[in-house]
Amino acid sequence: MKNKIKFHLDENISQAIAQGLKRRGIDVTTTPEQNLIGTLDEEQLFFAVSQQRVIFTQDTDFLRLHYQGIEHYGIVYSQQKSKSIGYIIQNLILIWQILEVKEMINHLEYL
After folding, report:
1. What is the pTM of this model?
2. How many folded domains does the chain comprise?
3. Whose CA is closest to 78, among 63, 68, 93?
4. Does residue 82 form part of some domain?
5. Could you tell me the residue range of the domain that residue 23 belongs to?
6. Which end of the chain is more exposed for a tag (fewer CB within 10 A), N or C?
7. What is the pLDDT of residues 46-73, one digit of tens each?
8. How far apart are CA 2 and CA 42, in angstroms?
9. What is the per-residue pLDDT for 80?
């Protein structure tokens, strides 16, 4: 069985996305749940790494961190207001179904 991806959603992501993923049995944490609101993006990424979680974000600062070579367990990025909540949930589920944790390490995926 594949080693299943766990997600962390940063503070600008709709709670509806987290709820949609959780209803499908996907392990998800959010910035508000982890009391990380207002923390630096590097700290958010450090939390995700410490928990071996792929971070889902709509914040371009995470793209900068990726291209600076900062280690991470995967970043999934979608431009703000460019995709519906349903589309985002479907694509995160697809990533969860198909990819293993090791395939996402230091990988940037655009939605």
Report:
1. 0.93
2. 1
3. 63
4. yes
5. 7-110
6. N
7. 999 999 999 999 999 999 999 999 999 9
8. 28
9. 87
